[in-house]
Write a structure and sequence with these properties.
This protein is α/β, with parallel strands linked by helices. The protein contains twelve helices and nine strands. The protein has one domain (2-289). A seven-stranded mixed β-sheet has the order 1-9-8-2-5-3-4, sandwiched between helices. Helix 8 (143-153) links the parallel strand 3 (133-137) and strand 4. Helix 3 crosses helix 4.
C-alpha cells in the first residue's frame, strides 16, 4: 500500500513547477475561501500581533500566508524527485556560520521558528554543513505520509529523531562527536505551569524550557535560523550566532533572547510565519506562572 501511495505523489512531483503552482493556487482558494481552514485563528493571531495595522493590511498578510502554506506543501511533494542541480539553484544560505563553529569542535543547537519552507531548510543544513544533522520531528497521523516525508528528509543524511522518543535516541547520537541539532523552539508548551513566560508581540506567552536546558547541559553554541522565500520555489537560510556560552545566561534569558529574535524576523516578513496554530491560548497568571521574563 505504501508504494502505491509513494508512486502517486512521486508522479505528481514530476509535473512542471508552473503546473504545481496552479494546483497550489486552487488549493489555497479551497482552503481559505471554501473550507475556511483556521481562518478565525489566523485573523485573531494577526490582530494580536499587529494591532496597529489596518484590517486590509492584516487581510493581505493572511492571504499571503495561505499561499505560502499551500506552496510549502506542494514544494515538499516536488522534493521527492528534484535533482541536486535544481535544488542547488533554488537554495542559498550563509552556511559558513555553522562550518566555522564546526572547526571549534563545539556542537550547535539551531533554534528555528515555524517559517516557510522548513523542508528546504532541513535539507540545506544536512547537505551543506559539516555537522551531522539531527532533526526532531513529530510523527504524522497518516502512517504512509509519515513514512514518505521521513524518507524524503533523510536524503542528505539527516538523522531524524521522533519527539516521542527523543531522550533515548538523542543520547546515542550526541555521544559520537559534534552535532547540529535543530529545534522548533516556538512550539506551544504542553504545560504552561512548567514553561518560561516571555513577552511575544506584547503578550505574555509560554515557551518550552527544553531547548534552553539542553543547550546549557550540553554547552552547545546557540544559532538562530531564519529561512524565507526569495520568490516562489527559491529560498534562503540565514544563520545568526546567538552565543557560544549558553551557561553565561541566567535561567530564561536565553529563551527570552530567542523570542526577541524570532519576533524581529517575523516582523520583517509577517506572512512567512505559521499563523494557523494557536500561539496565545493561555492566560498569564503571575501567581501560578511566576515572573514574566525579558531579555
Amino acid at each position: 500500500m505504501y508504494y502505491i501511495f509513494y508512486t502517486f505523489f512521486y508522479l505528481i512531483s514530476l509535473l512542471p513547477w508552473r503546473v504545481l503552482y496552479i494546483i497550489s493556487d486552487l488549493i489555497t482558494f479551497l482552503l481559505q475561501r471554501v473550507l475556511k481552514y483556521r481562518v478565525e485563528v489566523v485573523k485573531h493571531n494577526l490582530e494580536i500581533a499587529f494591532p496597529n495595522k489596518t484590517s486590509e493590511e492584516r487581510k493581505k498578510i493572511a492571504n499571503d500566508f495561505y499561499q505560502q502554506l499551500t506552496d510549502s506543501f506542494i514544494e515538499t511533494i516536488k522534493l521527492l524527485s528534484i535533482s541536486d542541480k535544481t535544488f542547488n539553484m533554488r537554495y542559498t544560505s550563509n552556511v559558513e556560520v555553522l562550518n566555522d563553529l564546526y572547526k571549534t569542535g563545539q556542537s550547535v543547537q539551531i533554534m528555528a521558528g515555524h517559517f516557510f519552507n522548513w523542508e528546504f531548510a532541513n535539507w540545506g543544513i544536512a547537505k551543506y554543513s559539516r555537522y551531522p544533522f539531527i532533526g526532531v520531528y513529530m510523527p504524522l497521523s497518516n502512517k504512509y505520509f509519515d513514512r514518505l516525508i521521513l524518507n524524503m528528509r533523510k536524503r542528505y543524511g539527516s538523522i531524524m529523531i521522533s519527539a516521542t522518543n527523543f531522550r533515548n535516541q538523542f543520547r546515542d547520537h550526541a555521544s559520537k562527536g559534534p552535532y547540529a541539532l535543530a529545534l522548533a523552539a516556538d512550539q506551544n508548551a504542553g504545560n504552561p505551569l512548567s514553561a518560561y513566560w516571555v513577552p511575544f508581540f506584547g503578550q505574555p506567552t509560554p515557551f518550552v524550557k527544553g531547548p534552553e536546558k539542553g543547550a546549557k547541559l550540553n554547552n552547545t553554541a546557540e544559532v538562530f535560523v531564519h529561512f524565507y522565500r526569495i520568490k516562489r520555489g527559491y529560498y534562503h537560510t540565514n544563520y545568526e550566532l546567538m552565543t557560544t556560552s549558553p551557561n553565561y545566561f541566567k535561567d530564561g534569558q536565553l529563551t527570552a533572547l530567542y523570542v526577541k529574535t524570532l519576533e524581529e524576523k517575523i516582523k520583517i516578513n509577517p506572512s512567512n510565519y505559521l499563523w494557523s496554530h494557536r500561539r496565545w491560548r493561555y492566560t498569564f497568571d503571575p501567581i501560578k506562572h511566576g515572573k514574566l521574563l525579558v531579555e
